[in-house]
Design brief:
This protein is of the alpha+beta class. It has a domain of 218 residues: Clavaminate synthase-like (Double-stranded beta-helix), CATH 3.60.130.10. It is 25% helix and 21% strand. It contains eight helices and 16 strands. The strands form four sheets. Strands 1, 2, 3, 4, 6, 13, 15 and 16 form an eight-stranded mixed beta sheet that branches. Strands 5-14-7-12 form a four-stranded antiparallel beta sheet, with helices on one face. The longest helix is centred in the first third of the chain and has 18 residues. The radius of gyration is 20 Å and the shape is globular.
């Protein structure tokens, strides 16, 4: 969806290092080994990240992670202006990982599950992990990798096109507060991209409009197949009702605001490819065009290297990914991904029961 600029947006300054609010911690080799060994023990005891017993015990199990990591994540919980949290230096045994799969359906491999478990334990320091019935068969740990045939699609499995910035699952009131990414392989250190609103540069007229429910955000393609919603979208376990709900949202999207929260720490909700002003609302279209230009101008790169774990704050930041050349030779970029929510009960209307972590 193209957005036409109607009123000139003030050009934000080029992003400097002090505007990229990334909280970082570099693991010592000893702590990195301890964290992975803890994840390995948890996997051996519980068998799976999705095991109900693991999900019930996860918060206590996370106390077995290195103290420095727990201190970092605790500070991150209270920082309402950060863009992301980065934990570097994690151990990834490339020789034991096996080739990068050609599709997410093949990516839940025995040798990669320990990294999903470690990612889940890290995520638990920030909230509760959830999945989507209409995404990757409801898996709580998803896989991000290039897929043949998806090179130019608006999907995270694309490669030759840029994955344009977005709030993860912006269409849904049940979207996660954090999106966690664990880099298992990235031969080109392909950057994740981040951007956010710089409060001091938002003119009052735009702020007033963006805080009103005068916009629509459609469900993104990660929740549907190329020809629309349906079981071929990637979940053989999702009920038809889940796809029916997505179809209704596409036909009758609710009116939403794009900005919320405190003036100096705004909460952002937007997806560049799937957002629009409500029909006939020229002022909303003008404010949207300003916001898109503002986020475009403030976009910066966050390279993801092997062993990096990054938790993006899905309230303060939008994220995407630069294009890269997919090789399809087993060496391609491969990330594990998890969603974490701060208030699990908020999504209860969309889950089958209190213990279910899959939003449908």
């Amino acid at each position: 969806m193209s957005v036409k600029t109607l009123r000139q947006a003030p050009g934000p300054d080029p992003v400097r290092a002090d505007t990229a609010r990334i909280l970082r911690h570099a693991l010592t080799p000893q702590d990195a080994r301890a964290a992975l060994n803890h994840a390995r023990r948890c996997l051996g005891s519980y068998g799976s990240v999705s095991a109900p017993r693991f999900l019930a015990d996860a918060r206590m199990l996370a106390s077995g992670l290195p103290l420095a990591v727990r201190e970092l994540m605790d500070a991150a919980r209270l920082d309402d202006r950060k863009h992301a949290v980065m934990i570097t230096g994690n151990v990834v045994a490339d020789g034991e990982l096996g080739p990068t799969p050609a599709h997410w359906r093949e990516a839940d491999t025995e040798d990669s599950r320990v990294y999903g478990m470690l990612l889940a334990l890290y995520a638990t320091l920030l909230g509760d992990i959830v999945g989507w019935a209409t995404q990757q068969a409801g898996r709580l740990i998803a896989d991000v990798l290039p897929t043949p045939g998806d090179e130019d699609k608006i999907l995270n499995s694309c490669s030759s096109r840029e994955l344009v910035w977005h709030t993860e699952d912006a269409f849904s009131p049940y979207r996660a507060e954090y999106v966690g990414l664990s880099c298992l392989r990235s031969p080109d250190a392909t950057p994740t991209t981040l951007s956010s609103v710089r409060p001091g540069l938002v003119p009052q007229w735009a702020r007033d409009v963006l805080r009103q429910p005068r916009f629509e955000i459609l469900p993104d393609n990660a929740h549907s197949g190329p020809d629309g919603p349906g079981p071929s979208a990637g979940s053989s376990t999702a009920s038809p009702q889940a796809f029916d709900r997505l179809d209704r949202l596409r036909r009758e999207p609710p009116a939403v605001a794009l900005l919320d929260g405190a003036p100096d720490a705004p909460v952002l909700r937007i997806d560049r490819d799937f957002v629009r002003a409500r029909e006939g609302d020229a002022e909303a279209a003008e404010a949207l065009a300003w916001l898109v230009a503002h986020l475009d101008a403030n976009l910066y790169d966050l390279p993801m290297r092997v062993g990096d774990v990054c938790f993006i704050d899905n309230r303060t930041s939008v994220h995407g990914r630069r294009p890269f050349r997919a090789r399809y030779d087993g060496t391609d970029r491969w990330l594990k991904r998890v969603n974490a929510v701060c208030d699990l009960r908020r999504s209860r209307p969309a889950r089958s029961c209190a213990d279910d972590r899959v939003i449908g």
